[in-house]
Amino acid sequence: MLKLAGSVCILLASGGMAYTYICSLRKELHQTEQLLELLTVMEGELMYHRCPLPELLVQLSSHMPNPYCALLKQGSVRMEDNREADIPVLWKEVCGEFTGQLVLSPQAYQVLLRAGEVFAYHSLDASLQLLTLCKQKLSDLLARRYAEFAGKQKLYYCICYMTGLFAIILLL
């Protein structure tokens, strides 16, 4: 009876481990979608409002959920405090502070860093072209990640449950 209870606990732990991995994948996909939304809203704000950069970031933060809301507010504060500083460098520093809260793939994180270069361009057309390029890269990445998601989900469940069954066999 004790071995049966231990076996059930091991299987439950294996399922919980698989569930945790899959939740982290979903969170990554969700934050990547939010980043794509941020770039879309940023493009609209640049095209129609053309307000100063710190105000733009505050406006963008009102449309975005966390962690992007906090990232944009922090970026706005930093840019107001350091008006002569290099904007892309400040953006990278702010993004670096939020790496613990962001669950992004390395490619999506690079797109986020690249989006900071939009603020350095003096030409609106160049900024909009860079945003369009970033959105395209992110859309392609999202399509690939969603295509891989179902396979990874099955793989994680299979590996975790097989590991659990292997542990049970060893303990019996």
What does it look like?
By secondary structure, this protein is mostly helical. It has six helices and no strands. The model has no long low-confidence stretch (mean pLDDT 85).
Counting DSSP H or I runs of 4 or more residues, the number of helices is 6
Give the averaged pLDDT, no decimals. Answer: 85
Q: How many β-strand runs?
A: 0
Largest sheet: none
CA-atom Rg in angstroms:
21 Å
The succession of helices and strands, N to C, reads HHHHHH
Structural class: mainly alpha
SS strand fraction: under 5%
Regions with little confidence, pLDDT below 50 for 5+ residues = none
Index terms:
0% strand, 172 residues, mainly alpha
Could you outline the blueprint of secondary structure elements for this entry?
Elements: H1 2-48, H2 53-63, H3 68-81, H4 87-97, H5 106-115, H6 124-171
Helix pairs in contact: 1-2, 1-6, 2-3, 3-4, 5-6
Quick structural summary:
Helices cover 82% and strands 0% of the residues.
